[in-house]
């Protein structure tokens, strides 16, 4: 039987947690449950198109429709190609910059941390608009400069859309992850680094053999969050689509959901597709976590 002091602690903990739990239920659980309910219904028109619409129970039909739709499945291939370009470049650049700032060669560390972090402070929509301006022929000084050198590149074409989107994301998120890696590097024991120097290890050997392995959990966490964010890719390709219409309105899974819901008014299909995206993101994050844990074991 719990003593009065333990009961009092439990009541206090429940009282302190209740605002979070209430907010979590309102903004996370309730929308998920509503989306799950909505995904089980579809809207049909009676009277050969001249009658009214009615919502009828569809069971798993919306999930089958989404999983059998080539546009929805192709969106995951686009995200996979985007991740293959974006994640190695961004994580590698952030790690290299963090190691450089942590080295004895770096000067004015605070200034460069702020300067490199500033792109992340720009809202994603504004960043996408800035880069689309730089991608647009006739407006972009970059395009004009390349054209003057005999280099013709259409950054808004379907062939270059993945690279153009990844470039925007790299510009936005490299500084953010660099700050995370730099903070993790500050926790590396200085005596370990001093011992490496005494043993004759150079700066590069110390960085690759000691610093990077010791901040592996921070790198794994950044990769996991980046993977989850990549699956939710929407803002940058949507702005590129509005600027050129070269990639289609369902280029990514989230764009597919937006098109199904607000262009085709098929909310059941949109809800089913969004839940499938959420399940895929959860499974992928679990896999990344397991792989990172296995890699951290001696």
Oligomeric category: single chain
Largest sheet: 2 strands, antiparallel
Helix content: over 70%
Strand order of the largest sheet: 1-2
List the uncertain runs. none
Subcellular location: Cell membrane
Main location: membrane
InterPro entries: MetI-like, MetI-like_sf, UgpAE/MalFG_permease
Membrane topology: Multi-pass membrane protein
Written account of the structure:
By secondary structure, the protein is mostly helical. 74% of the residues lie in helices and 3% in strands. The protein has 13 helices and two strands, in the order αββαααααααααααα. The protein has a two-stranded antiparallel ribbon with strand order 1-2. A hairpin with a 7-residue loop joins strand 1 and strand 2. Helix 8 runs antiparallel to helix 9. The two termini are 43 Å apart.
């Amino acid at each position: 039987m719990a003593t009065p002091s333990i009961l009092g602690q439990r009541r206090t903990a429940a009282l302190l947690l209740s605002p979070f739990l209430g907010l979590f239920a309102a903004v996370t659980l309730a929308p998920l449950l509503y989306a799950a309910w909505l995904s089980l219904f579809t809207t049909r028109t009676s009277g050969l198109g001249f009658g009214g619409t009615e919502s009828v129970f569809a069971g798993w039909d919306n999930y089958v429709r989404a999983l059998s739709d080539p546009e929805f499945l192709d969106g995951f291939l686009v995200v996979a190609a985007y991740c293959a370009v974006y994640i190695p470049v961004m994580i590698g650049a952030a790690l290299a910059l963090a190691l450089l700032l942590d080295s004895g060669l770096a000067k004015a560390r605070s200034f460069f941390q702020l300067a490199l972090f500033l792109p992340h402070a720009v809202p994603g929509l504004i960043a996408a608009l800035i880069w689309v301006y730089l991608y647009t022929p006739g407006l972009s000084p970059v395009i004009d400069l390349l054209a003057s050198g005999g280099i013709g590149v259409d950054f808004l074409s379907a062939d270059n859309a993945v690279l153009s989107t990844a470039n925007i994301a790299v510009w936005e998120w490299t500084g953010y992850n660099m700050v995370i890696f730099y903070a993790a590097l500050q926790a590396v024991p200085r005596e370990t680094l001093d011992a490496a120097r005494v043993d004759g290890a150079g700066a590069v050997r110390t960085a690759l053999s000691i610093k990077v392995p010791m901040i592996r959990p921070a790198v794994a966490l950044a990769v996991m969050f980046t993977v989850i964010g990549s699956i939710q890719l929407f803002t940058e390709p949507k702005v590129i689509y509005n600027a050129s219409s070269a990639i289609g309105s369902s280029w990514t899974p989230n764009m597919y959901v937006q098109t199904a819901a607000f262009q085709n008014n098929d909310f059941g299909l949109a809800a089913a597709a969004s839940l499938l995206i959420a399940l895929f993101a959860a499974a992928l994050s679990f896999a990344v976590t397991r792989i990172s844990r296995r890699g951290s074991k001696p």
